[in-house]
Specification:
- This protein is an alpha+beta fold and about 190 residues long.
- The protein has 6 helices and 5 strands; from the N terminus they run H-H-H-E-E-E-H-E-E-H-H.
- The strands form 2 sheets. Strands 1-2-3 form a 3-stranded antiparallel β-sheet. A two-stranded antiparallel sheet has the order 4-5.
- Helix 5 packs across helix 6.
- The mean pLDDT is about 90.
C-alpha cells in the first residue's frame, strides 16, 4: 500500500499550514518513507486538501532575483551566440521551400518572412494583388509558378470555379472556366440589383 492508514491519517490531521514539500520531509522522517514532493502534492490534490499557505506575492514584497539581472554561471558564456553569428539553419533571402500544403514559399525578408512564390511572381510582373483577389494555377499544378501558368481572379470567381468544377489540368480549359465563372458572377450581380 503506497499510503498506509497511519500516513493518510497524519496527512489529514496535519495538512493545514504544511506545504507538500514540508509534509514529504516530515513523513520521511517520522515513518521512514521515501515520499517525494510530487507524490504528496498529488495526494493533496486527489484528496482536495489545501494547506492554506498563501504563496502569492504580497504588495511591496521583492522577488528573490531582484537586482540579479545578467547573473549567470561562470563558463556558460562559451556557448552564447557571438555578435554577427549566423545560425546553422539560416536561409538567405530568395531561398525556397515547399510547405505542408505543397505550395512553394520564398524567403522575402529577414529574419524569417516567407511568402507564396506564385504571389511573388505575379506581383513582380503585374504589381500588387488587389484586395479580394487570388492568383490561381491554370494547369492546377501548384509547383508550376511560371507567369504563363498564373491567373488573377476574384475570390467570388474562385468560389464559383470550385463550386462548378471549372478547374482543369489543361491550362486552356481552366482559362475558359475562369471566363465562365466571371460571366456567372456578373449575371448573379445583375440579378441581385433587380
Amino acid at each position: 500500500m503506497k499510503y498506509p492508514k497511519e500516513v493518510g491519517d497524519y496527512i489529514k490531521n496535519n495538512h493545514i499550514g504544511t506545504s507538500p514539500k514540508d509534509m514529504a520531509e516530515i513523513l520521511n522522517q517520522k515513518f521512514k518513507t521515501k515520499y517525494t514532493y510530487n507524490q504528496i502534492r498529488a495526494y493533496y490534490k486527489n484528496h482536495k486538501y489545501k494547506s492554506g499557505i498563501d504563496t502569492r506575492f504580497k504588495k511591496g514584497q521583492e522577488s528573490h532575483n531582484k537586482g540579479k539581472k545578467g547573473l549567470y554561471y561562470p563558463g556558460c558564456e562559451k556557448t552564447w551566440f557571438k555578435k554577427g553569428n549566423i545560425p546553422e539553419n539560416y536561409r538567405p533571402i530568395g531561398s525556397e521551400r515547399i510547405n505542408a500544403d505543397g505550395y512553394i514559399e520564398i524567403k522575402t525578408r529577414n529574419p524569417n518572412t516567407w511568402d507564396f512564390k506564385h504571389r511573388v511572381v505575379w506581383e513582380k510582373h503585374n504589381g500588387k494583388i488587389p484586395d479580394k483577389h487570388v492568383v490561381v494555377f491554370l494547369d492546377s499544378n501548384q509547383l508550376n509558378t511560371s507567369i504563363e501558368n498564373l491567373k488573377l481572379i476574384s475570390q467570388q470567381e474562385l468560389l464559383t470555379m470550385n463550386r462548378h468544377g471549372l478547374f482543369s489540368e489543361s491550362a486552356d480549359l481552366t482559362k475558359v472556366g475562369a471566363t465562365v465563372a466571371k460571366l456567372k458572377c456578373k449575371i448573379y450581380e445583375k440579378n441581385k440589383q433587380i
